[in-house]
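INFO  loader      accepted 1 record
INFO  loader      residues=759
INFO  predictor   begin
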Amino acid sequence: MTDTHPLPAGLSLEQRASLLSGQDFWTTTALDEAGLPAVVLTDGPHGVRRQEGPFDTIGIHRNVPATCFPPAVAVGSSWDPSVAERIGTAIGREARALGVHVVLGPGVNMKRSPLCGRNFEYYAEDPLLAGVLGAAHVRGQQAEGVGASVKHFAANNQETDRMRVSADVDERTLREVYLPAFERVVTEARPATVMCAYNKVNGVYASQHRWLLTEVLRDEWGFDGVVVSDWGAVDDRVAALAAGLDLQMPGNRGVGDRRVVAAVRAGELDEAFVDVSAARVAGLARFVGAAAGSSGVAGGFDVDAHHALARELAAQCAVLLRNERGTLPLLRDARVVVVGEFARTPRFQGGGSSNVHATRVESALDAVRALAAADVPFTPGFPLDGAGDAAALREEAVALARSAQVAVVFAGQGEAEESEGSDRETLDLPAVQVELIRAVAAVAPRTVVVLSNGGMVSLEGWHDEVDAVLEGFLLGQAGGGALADLLYGVANPSGHLAETIPLRLGDVPSSVDFPGEQGHVRYGEGVLMGYRGFTTLDRPVRYAFGHGLSYTTFTTSDLQVVATGEDTARLSVTVANTGDRAGKHVVQVYVATSAGPVRRPARELRAFTPVVLEPGERRTVTVDLDRRAFAYWDVREGGWVVPPGSYTVQIGASAVDVVASATVTLVGDDLLPALTLDSSVEDWLGHPVVGPDLLEGFAGWLPDLPPPTTAEGLGMLRMVGSMPMRRFVADMGASVPADELDRMVARAATARAERVARP
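INFO  predictor   done
INFO  writer      dumping tokens
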């Protein structure tokens, strides 16, 4: 299958160039003479945001109704690819019913900082978790004949100065942390489009970054779809086209097209760039002809079925963080009071371009009352808009809580604090909400806090005073019903954190550099982002990446790990449900090692699999760990390297709670380092092929230098060991024969080539 469309002969340069930008905000340019219809692209990724009326403006708040499914912040905590895939499938069906051909999502950017205002659209702080879920979403959506657009490529991890900031990040960090999720989606799910980011990467706009868009995306990963700009991300249209950006969105009345034509006419741009990109964009026409499936409703989709699906999936996304004294699940006949405006006025999605006009919205208050056997009183507790008498509302809540067996407080962040276009300034809940939680907890026999937030919030200042905390994130339009199902045990919590909850913002590894200054943000933490940094630096956290409780209990036993090749392994582990409820457990597989010449994180997530078990059921899970599970990106080799050595495979209840471990020894890569005159003296002396000869030669060429085997020689080596050989010879070793060094370089190169070619 090809993702391009052959263009008919005879099309003018102007006609071909017209395909390279939109005809308006949401459609590509139709070319009737070539049989190419306009393709409709709309925002996602957790629901179809199809604009009402003409597409000549952005119209964020004028949209036709569609189901708002759980956003990525919630799906990430499901740790379940089937949840992501079922959402993708449903979105694909709704898109077809609404005449949409490409839905812009999913977003797989890393949650580098909990302050990022768009974190609600992203899955995780780990690239494996985000990549697996993103690929599942794309598979589900595109199986329905609707194209996907994985975004935002790449290093788009903040909203501050997002249209121009330069993400200054080294290649190893890019390769190990910020690119792998995109790589997995591209190579495993073949999305129709990849959307470039607004920001610069190391000083070059992502929209015209040839290394990203062509060398990595196409040449290395084999992407053959359309690279589309984020809306308004193109800075220099000609440079962007030459770098590999096919489609500029939105349309700018042909300005960019005319610049492309002029550049070709002036000999500044090869016309082949126009032909190749035009054929790719034309290939999107295949989604226009996708046949409509059976939606259950003539000319539309089954609104009720999709709302029920949204409720079912949302219940698999919330995370039970704390549950002291068996406070949850609630008894149906318990005297429960509900406090907090979010129970009545749900917060279920983020602000900005992904804001879906929901078909309906279900409040947690109504759902709780529907499940409870007794009356459930309610009081708002605090004003959402900052108006009103907060003290009076708090006093009313305290009075109500005194009469209850359990007070359930709904708290969280407002949409204004979590929206595309701006980052948050604090992790703290609003002060009025913290005061409310503490006041209620002081008088209620038991207190449960239910959180609604798109970005992680601090639990400090009130956590230890409450009995249970249910992190609901943003759960979509049916989130209220899902929360009620979890509170009363209709559903069993199975979510696990996809990002760390820190004790302090200053503990976050990126906090020193985020969000940057004067047009640059330095990724100074390198590969130690998120839980990698917390575990490696041994910083305590409130709740770790991967943490999540259940109403049942699980045990892990019989971990075995065997090598299946020089750089691969297989593990098996037995999981048992030792409680009295069915539940879903996530087997989290981490790898730890000190092998190799670079610093590795304390542990890294390398595989995961959800397992559904009935009470008393045991199951042995087998997981294959491929080469990448043990590799790091070697900047000298320009590729992935598995060093020979010992690797510890760990099963974690979270990134800090290892419940089982086993060690496997791998042969790894038998590499000889490259050697040049710019290599250090230490590199030369340590080279296994030429090092001994060089050492012997030094004894004759430089008799006045103490041998490196003596204490004096070792001291000398420490002083000059990092000096390039070229400089050492020029400054200190004039009698070293240059031709002899050249022969040694050649011998090292020959030996390296022979070892690389060895089967």
